[in-house]
């Protein structure tokens, strides 16, 4: 039915850019599968594989440095891979720092924060007002995000 509408002088494809893209996308005809041959092998000689060498024995100081410290708590990472330490302003204009994704002994983590981070800075427990709010959440008074993140990275948490 539509074959009668085509004329001999009229090209089959009206858009030349479409015709070019179809020409480049077409696969050239190949011979039958029975006559196909595998690609020729490379004439370059292969290098022999090197055997894995054993690591030299470590000294006792290096072995102690490589051992990681095991803490009774673990602080996970946020979904983007950062430390889950957040600053917030609560009603009344009070600044708070929230540490999330804490697993394990949360009270021990709070105690370690108070003794190793805030005590050398001269901040006592009453001023810090650290609390375990929810399971996995520690709440501190004040904006301490930079200090807490540095402390976490320093200890490898």
From TrEMBL:
Pfam families in UniProt: Img2 (PF05046)
InterPro entries: Ribosomal_mL49
Keywords assigned by UniProt, alphabetized: Mitochondrion, Ribonucleoprotein, Ribosomal protein
Signal peptide interval: none
GO biological process: translation
Comp. bias regions, Low complexity: 23-36
Annotated localization: Mitochondrion
Gene Ontology molecular-function annotations: structural constituent of ribosome
Family from the record: Belongs to the mitochondrion-specific ribosomal protein mL49 family.
Protein name: Large ribosomal subunit protein mL49
Upper taxonomic lineage: Eukaryota, Fungi, Dikarya, Basidiomycota, Agaricomycotina
């Amino acid at each position: 039915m539509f074959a009668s509408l085509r004329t001999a002088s009229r090209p089959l494809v009206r858009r030349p850019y479409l015709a070019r893209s179809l020409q480049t996308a077409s696969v050239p005809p190949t011979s039958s599968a029975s006559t196909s041959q595998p690609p020729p092998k490379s004439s370059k000689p292969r290098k022999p594989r090197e055997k894995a060498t054993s690591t030299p024995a470590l000294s006792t100081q290096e072995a102690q440095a490589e051992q990681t410290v095991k803490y009774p708590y673990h602080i996970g990472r946020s979904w983007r891979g950062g430390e889950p330490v957040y600053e917030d302003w609560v009603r009344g204009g009070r600044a708070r720092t929230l540490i999330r994704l804490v697993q394990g002994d949360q009270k021990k983590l709070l105690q370690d924060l108070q003794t190793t981070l805030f005590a050398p800075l001269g901040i006592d427990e009453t001023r810090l007002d650290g609390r375990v709010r929810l399971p996995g959440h520690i709440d501190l008074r004040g904006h301490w995000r930079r200090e807490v993140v540095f402390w976490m990275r320093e200890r490898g948490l």
